[in-house]
Write a structure and sequence with these properties.
- There is one protein chain.
- It is built from two helices and seven strands; from the N terminus they run βββββββαα.
- It is α+β, with helices and mostly antiparallel strands and 143 residues long.
- The chain folds into two domains: 59 residues, no CATH class; 66 residues, no CATH class.
- The strands form two sheets. The protein has a four-stranded antiparallel β-sheet with strand order 2-3-4-5, with no helix packed on it.
- Helix 1 packs antiparallel against helix 2.
- The longest helix has 33 residues.
- The chain starts with 8 loop residues before the first strand and ends with a helix.
- Bound molecules: zinc ion.
- The site of zinc ion has 7 residues, from loops.
- Zinc ion (ZN) binds next to loops.
Length: 143
């Protein structure tokens, strides 16, 4: 099952008290439970308890169910697009680290700057690669 639609969800970070609650959505209602577990950095955090037994930060409504991403086999957004689009997103993300364009931002280490520039070049090469994967069979048919 591959769900591509945007699903309504419940986030643990919105709530501050543990215990069970009832969520209503689209004519369905489901009970879900918050559990407080110790955090790795001290203190504790609220987690949502899924019917599968996992503790997660987010539960999704799907039809009459309120389940975690594992139960619904939900992919990340980047898993739903092709390699070419993923590389464009990657390049955009990297370019945001260099707001001055081709110049090295003030205060950025030269080594960091070079690593980002190299990663941008790599993303562009990967875009070319994915483009060729699609374009070459089309060009062969045109011969
Ligand atoms: Zn689950």
């Amino acid at each position: 099952m591959l769900i591509t639609e945007q699903l309504q969800h419940i986030d643990a970070k919105v709530f501050s008290l543990e215990g069970s609650r009832i969520a209503d959505w689209n004519g369905y209602s489901a009970t879900f439970e918050f559990v407080r577990l110790p955090s790795n950095v001290g203190g504790s955090q609220l987690w949502l308890h899924c019917a599968c037994g996992r503790t997660v930060k987010r539960l999704y409504f799907y039809r009459a169910w309120l389940r975690c991403r594992h139960c619904l086999q939900l992919g990340y957004q980047s898993q739903l697009v092709d390699g070419y689009t993923r590389q464009i997103w990657r390049e955009d993300r990297l370019r945001k680290l260099l707001p001055c364009g081709a110049r090295r931002p003030k205060g950025m280490h030269l080594k960091t700057y070079r690593r980002i520039r190299e990663a941008i070049r790599n993303a562009q090469e990967m875009q070319d690669y994915y483009f060729c994967l699609v374009a070459l069979p089309i060009l062969r048919r045109m011969r």
